[in-house]
Amino acid sequence: MNPAMVIARREVRAYFNSPVAYIVVSAFTIIAGGIFFFFKFFLAQEASMRGFFESMPMLFMFLAPAITMRLLAEEKSSGTLELLITMPVRDWQVVLGKFLAALALLVTTLLLTLVFAITVRALGPVDRGPTIGGYLGLLLMGGAYMAIGVMASAFTKNSMIAFITAFAISFILFIVGQVTQFVPGPLQGLASFLGIGNHFENISRGVVDTRDVLYYGSVMAVCLLLATLSLESRRWR
Amino acid sequence: MSDLMIEVEGLTKNYGYTRAVDKVSFSAPHGEVLGFLGPNGAGKSTTMKILTCYLAPTAGRAIVAGHDVFDDSLEVRKRVGYLPEDTPIYRDMTVVEFLRFAAEMRGMERDKADGRIKEIGRRCGLSDVAGKLVGELSKGFRQRVGLAQAILHDPDIVILDEPTSGLDPNQIVEIRSLIKEIGREKTVILSTHILPEVQATCSRVVIISGGKLVADGTPDALRARERGGRYRVVVESNGVPKDAIRDRLASLSGVTRCEAIAGEDGSHAFAIDAGSSSDLRKPIFRAAVDNRWTLLELAREAASLEDVFRNLTTGEEVKS
Fold first, then answer.
1. Chain A residues touching residue B80 (CB < 8 angstroms)
2. Which of these, A77, A189, B84, B138, is most buried using a 10 Å CB contact count?
3. CA separation for the pair B60, A98 (Å, rounded)
4. pTM for the predicted model, two decimal places
């Protein structure tokens, strides 16, 4: 088995051995469900998951850092990184393994939210396209948020600092896409392209555009690359 | 290919402006237990981190198991087992889970790994705690898990950073005998600042101080290098004043220091330091006969590794 997969499996097991994952995942599901049903679904009076998807770019800002904050920071502070990295494994494999573990937890969380979709379906006919598109978008956008979190965790020894850094980066990427009307004309296009939530809006309408997929793919690639470089920096500092 | 498992040449490591390791060179042949000795902060851990590919050297090179630690680090890491200082092991895994994880990371097949884990677990005395969480183990057991992890994949070279620090005397004895056993088949490097450890386990010693290599040899050879010696003399007091005896002993040629030390009732005891390697026992005996002292005790204490170490690492009497 690839070392990245070995690391991912260890991490996933560590998640489910600790109460933190259960608390984070269930808190997320409860809050997401509460916001969806009480503030969106019953007000809109239509059988659609749109209200649920709308709140996700915001809620992921909390979910992702909470899941990723300890991934590398804790390895550094407890010294286990030294043991891990002196095994025959490349630095990018360590980063990828951690990222895959975070993705696995994201998928678990999203599976739990399928309960909402089933509930909505019981109340009325649901448009299939946007729902499937929405979940696909959540995976892509969630991946980008998780990659940001893994990167932030690679930068520091302190999980709390990793959380705040990841939150700050996600928040900036999110807000840039929300305030396009305050940006000077020529930059508006750029601002809305950089916005991490904007591409999700497209996908959750059921329109999968390569531009949007490419955006999330690039965010993941850049963040994981920076995380790898940060790990490697111990060798040339 | 040469028989040398480790070849280090002019190894230098800077942390910012401070130089942690300064042009250190040494080598170790197959099957040697090499003790890495030095005061805290001498650069032992840094050197080990370079040998295990955790850090890269600023200058110089290190060939471990025939591969360069910088250019070919993956190959080096496959052939090295490493126990970092303070035994950092995931506390949320059981002993077996952790060893399985280590085996998988080393690319071992599941069936083979399980058999090997059982065997190593027995050798390291882990059978009774196999299902326990690492975080719940005592320091001694955690250390054994660390050792088991380091030899699990049957590496050519085992590098142990302070494997006995923080253990109680019984645990120390156990870990040492384990290390000795490992050393029968493999090249072992262990760092320590505890001298008896070196005498008990190592076939060769490298002493570093302030990042520099100051001595390299067998424990016996290092002891022999320390010239001079220390004598202990006890004389029955019957009426002879202490100062007179001391002055007489101090006047013997070759004595650099003579000091009265506490003795039993009715006797005077002295500690004598000699500057040269010539034997002072005869002159001391003759002085006693000439002055009609009753000699109760006369002993030469050979220089201990402690003396060598202290001299080499405190900057006094540093010899080439």
1. 86
2. B84
3. 34
4. 0.85
